[in-house]
Amino acid sequence: MRKQDNHHEHDQYSHSLFYKKYINLLGLLFIGIIVFFPLASLILPDTKLSENENRILTQLPRFSVDSIIDGRYMKKMQKYTADQLVGRNFWIYTKTSTDRLIGKNSSNGVYFGKNSTLIENFNPLPADAIEQTKAALNTFAERHSDLNHYFMLVPNAVSITAEKLPAYAPVLNQNDYINGFTAGLNEKLTILDPRPILEEHPDELLYYKTDHHWTTLGAWLSFQGVADAMAIKPDPDAYTVYPVTDTFSGALVSKSGYLSLVTDTIDVYLPKSEDDYSVVNYVEEQKKSPSLYDSEQLQQKDKYAVFLEGNHPLIKIKNPVANGKNLLVIKDSYANAFIPFLTPFYSEITVIDPRYYYDSIDALIADAQITDILYLFNANTFFRDTTLEPVLNDD
To answer: Which of 1, 137, 197, 359 counts the highest number of beta carbons within 10 A?
Structure first.
């Protein structure tokens, strides 16, 4: 009996010792993870560009006493450590995968919708910021009352394909914002509304499943829908459609962190007529191209940049049209897939992106002998961005 008790006590002691070693090892591992990843992030060279997220990552902030006192240094340091964390993409995907397992269908402003469709939520700025942009537009139209002004706000997937959102997703009515804004615009601005024709094609792929942009089909249908208001008559049979990639994994995959096996196909619409050609001049880059499309971009993460090589401060497009009509397009990236459909109708098209353009717009209008202006933005970007106002005010 004594031997059995000793044996039992020995087993308990061994089990207790093993448990303590296990807990200590687990604690050391936890401490090691806490110490290793931040330390490795500080030792390893900083990453400047995240191709996966398609953005510039925060770099090590400069130390100063003033920045410590007012708190700026610590805020920048927090962003820096988050952006430069070793294994950042792994941790993002781990978090979003865990969220999905517990039934959460949104991440970083992106919903995981039906048929593995990613849809960006609509999150506008306060009304006063939007009103300032509206006032700038109205004043600008008055200042250039001799020109034809066309204003086009493109709805996003959150509005047009709302049926693909997760059940009970709390989203604002984007149409109310579009209608409210356009209702207050100067009568000199002709409103171009692509919503009716987009809503007529609910079964078509009008937006990418992995990206926030509309597809080339969405842009082409919208062009046909607003052409009459621009005194343009497009030829429905003018283009041949070519798929240039079927491996496009867009910005919403990167933004949300969702590990999606779905990829998108990007199509380009090439004119059937050999006489329809354009020469594109990327002014600041001092580069010219005989095509509106850049196939080299298809080798990069952001394959949507196949259209006009992405976003640039200033582009000039010369077309084989001698009608004396010169168009200025003030835009965001949605216009990049739309502009090719405009080239048969204007001798020259000047394109500026107010997020990157800092020169005088009045001087540009005079130098380019502009006759028409098209403002083309998607609603999500337009109601979140304030860069248009200073450009129109020539600040």
So the answer is: 137
